[in-house]
Amino acid sequence: MKNITVIGAGTMGRGIALACVQAGYDVVVQDVSEESLQRCETYIRKFTDSVSIQFETDLQQAVKSADLVIEAVLELMDLKVEIFKALDTFAPPHAILATNTSTMSPTEIASQTSRPGQCIALHFFNPVHKMKLIEVICGLETSEETIQTSMEFGQSLGKECVKINEFPGFAAGRMNCLIGNEAMNMVMEGVGSIEDIDKAMKLGLNHPMGPLELADLVGLDTRLRNMEYLYATLGEKYRPCPILKKYVKAGWLGKKTGRGFYTYDEEGNKL
């Protein structure tokens, strides 16, 4: 495996692309937005001046030589299915097609392609360059060869990989959403301040980051989509906290908009 294409130049896409470049792969980042690609390139150039990365708006051109395609777009099933149908058409027959998702079904996505055995979910964590884990999630028809190749790829990035059988929310995402949602309910109920609830989790349970700070980092709109999916598939205990819905309606999406549970300056530092 030599050539990696990342679909989506947002927070996760640029992080995955950077990790791949630093591991020595030739990388193409594709996005329909020139502006997003420019922001992605600016971010990546802070860490490397490697010439092994290209930026492309045309999907067919971006995947023509890919050995592995990693889709890293919004957590919307219709969008992911649409992209995978196109990838199935344009990517080389040997290419593995992976979705970076914290909740969505790789089986459902793979069923829309002619190569379900070569489809898998690779759940990276934000920020990718710091987080050591990749969840390797197997769909119903994912082949053992695809699983093994994906595990070896993850390890080549310096990550630890865990094999997870598909179930809504997988392992880390399912627990993370539940903890974060309960922290939001505690804020709404007046149990403690945002800062003190986060501090309690960091110092009392040895979490490296508080659940509210983490939700801001992930993006409250992304977290809401995850919660809505888990609520629909797993039931009442995953009902999104009303304060999460309110913040998203207000445009308080977390670090990327400068305001969520905390407020941030233009460099993304907490105020």
CATH top level assignment of the largest domain? Alpha Beta
- Shape label: globular
Number of separate structural domains: 2
Question: How many DSSP H or I helices?
Answer: 11
- The total of beta strands comes to 8
Largest sheet: 8 strands, mixed
- CATH topology tier name of the largest domain: Rossmann fold
Major β-sheet strand ordering: 3-2-1-4-5-6-7-8
- Bin the strand percentage: 5-15%
Order of helices and strands: EHEHEHEHEHEEHEHHHHH
How large is the radius of gyration? 18 Å
- Fraction of residues in helices? 40-55%
Find the CATH superfamily of the largest domain. Answer: NAD(P)-binding Rossmann-like Domain
Distance from first to last alpha carbon: 44 Å
The pLDDT mean sits at 95
Query: Segments where pLDDT lies below 50 for 5+ residues?
Result: none
Class by SSE composition: alpha/beta
GO molecular function: NAD+ binding; oxidoreductase activity, acting on the CH-OH group of donors, NAD or NADP as acceptor
Protein name: 3-hydroxyacyl-CoA dehydrogenase
Keywords: NAD, Oxidoreductase
Site (Important for catalytic activity): 123
Descriptive keywords:
single chain; 271 residues; alpha/beta; Rossmann fold; N-(1-d-carboxylethyl)-l-norvaline Dehydrogenase, domain 2; eight-stranded mixed beta sheet; 11 helices
Give the SSE layout.
Layout (H helix, E strand, L loop, with lengths): L2 E5 L3 H12 L3 E5 L3 H12 L7 E4 L2 H5 L4 E4 L5 H14 L5 E4 L6 H5 L8 E6 L8 E6 L5 H13 L3 E6 L6 H18 L4 H11 L6 H8 L1 H15 L7 H8 L22
Parallel strand pairs: 1-2, 1-4, 2-3, 4-5, 5-6, 7-8
Antiparallel strand pairs: 6-7
